[in-house]
């Protein structure tokens, strides 16, 4: 484990999520996506930790969200642990709105085009 700022060995470990994108985009599009994700820094948006590309294999490494997606918490039996409490639903909705507002601020060049329950991730709360 390497500390992201000093490049010295880090003493703490973090859990990550590895996402294989299976994209067949042009190298310029891939680089633009990586650059865009690398610039996003907001406490309500998941952080891109790293990436790897090899031919058609494109992998993103993100911070891990313990409870998974909102969709899984609402609809999937495998993840379903009962209805989410209303105070938790409000907290999730406010966090999602804050993240979306950050992405769509007037000076931003980012436009979120896929805002749905599968892309709203929930930490341990």
TrEMBL record:
Domain (Protein kinase) ranges: 1-125
Entry keyword annotation includes Kinase: yes
Record organism: Helianthus annuus (Common sunflower)
SUPFAM superfamilies xref list: Protein kinase-like (PK-like) (SSF56112)
Chain segments annotated as coiled-coil in the UniProt record: none
GO cellular component: plasma membrane
The keyword Kinase belongs to this UniProt entry's keyword annotation: yes
PROSITE patterns in UniProt: PROTEIN_KINASE_DOM
Organism lineage: Eukaryota, Viridiplantae, Streptophyta, Embryophyta, Tracheophyta
The protein's name: Transferase, protein kinase RLK-Pelle-RLCK-VIIa-2 family
Keywords of this entry: Cell membrane, Kinase, Membrane, Transferase
